Amino acid sequence: MGRELQVDIAYKYLKEKILDGTFRPSQKLNELELAETINVSRNTLKKAFLRLEKENLIQMENNKGAFIKSFTLEEISNYLKIREVLEGLVIRDATVKITDSKLKRMEEIYQDMGNCLKESQFDKYSSLNKEFHHIIYTAATNVQAVEIITMLKTQMSRFQLRTILVPGRKEESYEEHGAILEAVKNRDKDAAEEAIKKHISNVRITIEKNYYVLI
């Protein structure tokens, strides 16, 4: 197996464990144990650490090792405020350029999201949620804004499923996605921007109110 492939395998393994909450904020990563678990060398593992550090998912400390990045409430709030502005910028562009086929797929996803809520399939709801937003990103031409949003979402994704489990949040989320879809279907840039900003703002408010439960 090539060295780069080994680094990629280690990186994906660690990232999945960070985002699904297996590794907790501020937890120290045991290099020897992880190298044995993933079946890679410690040098390969350190290269994977560097990739994760660039994504701000872990932090490296001299002579101490690697730790899972822990975000303060202020940091999380600031990231989401930045994302709110960028999402508004991107959706204005996407609303004009999105194709009918992509709109149709968004409608299908929205219906499936509703079915997931009825069946309490929250993992699937979360996956569909990501796909819903991804369609908007692919319809926009501001690649740089989308790249920054993707980075911010990666850092915050560990909160996504836990946030949807806050009482009342899943119903609000579904309604917010409906408003986004309706505005995009109507090619209404102003309404789409308002809807997406309201959605991100409500995510931020939910986390702010439930921070110590969600971390």
Could you give the count of β-strands?
Answer: 3
Shape descriptor: globular
**What kind of assembly state do the chains in view correspond to?**
single chain
Average pLDDT works out at 94
Span of the ends, CA to CA = 37 Å
Helix content bin: over 70%
Strand order of the largest sheet: 1-3-2
Radius of gyration, in angstroms, nearest whole number: 19 Å
CATH architecture of the largest domain: Up-down Bundle
Count of individual domains: 2
Q: What's the CATH topology label of the largest domain?
A: Four Helix Bundle (Hemerythrin (Met), subunit A)
Counting helices, strands and paired strands, the structural category is mainly alpha
At the fourth level of CATH, the homologous superfamily of the largest domain is: GntR ligand-binding domain-like
| SSE pattern, N- to C-terminal | HEHHEEHHHHHHH
Q: Runs with pLDDT <50, length 5+?
A: none
Any idea of the CATH class of the largest domain?
Answer: Mainly Alpha
β-strand amount: under 5%
For the largest beta-sheet, the strand count, sense and barrel status come to:
3 strands, antiparallel
Number of helices: 10
Written account of the structure:
There is one protein chain. This protein is mainly alpha-helical. It has two domains: 66 residues, Winged helix-like DNA-binding domain superfamily/Winged helix DNA-binding domain (Arc Repressor Mutant, subunit A, Orthogonal Bundle), CATH 1.10.10.10; 142 residues, Four Helix Bundle (Hemerythrin (Met), subunit A) (Up-down Bundle). 75% of the residues lie in helices and 5% in strands. A three-stranded antiparallel sheet has the order 1-3-2, covered by helices on one side. A hairpin with a 3-residue loop joins strand 2 and strand 3. Helix 2 crosses helix 3. The longest helix has 26 residues. The radius of gyration is 19 Å and the shape is globular. It starts with a helix and ends with a helix. The mean pLDDT is 94.
